[in-house]
Design a protein that fits this description.
This protein is of the alpha+beta class. The protein has helices at 19-25, 80-94, 111-119, 156-164, 192-197, 199-203, and strands at residues 2-6, 9-13, 52-55, 62-63, 74-76, 144-146, 170-173, 180-183, 209-211. It has two domains: 1-132, Ubiquitin-like (UB roll) (Roll), CATH 3.10.20; 144-214, 2-Layer Sandwich (Alpha-Beta Plaits). β1 and β2 (9-13) form a beta hairpin. The protein is globular and about 50 Å long.
Length: 215
């Protein structure tokens, strides 16, 4: 076991763990959206840019999911620089997010709401302008509807689909602002394993994927 200090508290973590997983398993919350419990440091996409921490010996804040724990490591999760980066990252995500919580099935169980509350800010995006995609809902998938303007492109649904199925049905499509989660098959004869899996629905943090029976 590795022993490190986080915000003045000594914690233990298995060798090879990321700083993020070590903190989360020690009940030290670090904002994050794109991390899976099974992730190793090599797996971590660091896509959401929320899990910044400061570590003694590093010249600038780093993403906690991409750093391996070391004995004697000194980690700081609540510095001014860390919080500034996290608030900016969240506002950037909100600038392309349709905030309509009362009509969203993820209301009260939404990671964006949880992180905003943790950081002590609202769901506004100032100083950034909110810009939404024209397509509000994509209903091609036989099991769920996809809402691009709720999606934070965390990639969890794509990764779960890839890990569980020989022929994944989900992938990113488009570029830049137009990036969305794409669905490969456009007919209703989708692999039954896909229809019964629910993995993508279970990991979505923002209500971007909604089971058709719940719409």
């Amino acid at each position: 076991m590795i022993i490190l200090t986080v915000d003045g508290r000594s914690i233990q973590a298995p060798a090879g763990s990321s700083v993020l997983s070590a903190c989360l398993f020690a009940d030290i919350f670090i904002p994050h959206l794109c991390w899976l419990e099974s992730d190793t440091v090599a797996d971590a996409p660091a896509a959401c840019r929320l899990c910044f921490v400061e570590i003694d010996g590093f010249s600038e804040p780093v993403t906690a999911c991409t750093v391996t724990v070391e004995n004697g490591m000194m980690v700081h999760t609540d510095t001014e620089a860390v919080r500034s980066l996290q608030k900016t990252a969240l506002k950037l995500l909100l600038s392309v997010h349709k905030v309509d919580c009362k009509n969203c099935p993820a209301d009260k169980a939404c990671s964006l709401q949880d992180i905003a509350k943790f950081l002590g800010i609202g769901l506004g995006c100032k100083p950034f302008e909110r810009v939404l995609k024209e397509l509000d809902v994509d209903s091609r998938h036989p099991a769920f509807d996809y809402y691009p303007n709720r999606c934070v492109l965390c990639g969890l649904c794509v990764r779960i689909c890839r890990d569980r199925h020989e022929q994944p049905m989900l992938s990113f499509a488009g570029r830049g602002f137009n990036t969305v989660v794409g669905y490969f098959a456009e007919t209703s004869d989708t692999d039954p394993d896909c229809l019964s899996c629910r993995g993508c629905l279970d990991v979505c943090p923002t209500g971007a994927l909604v089971e058709k029976s719940q719409v």
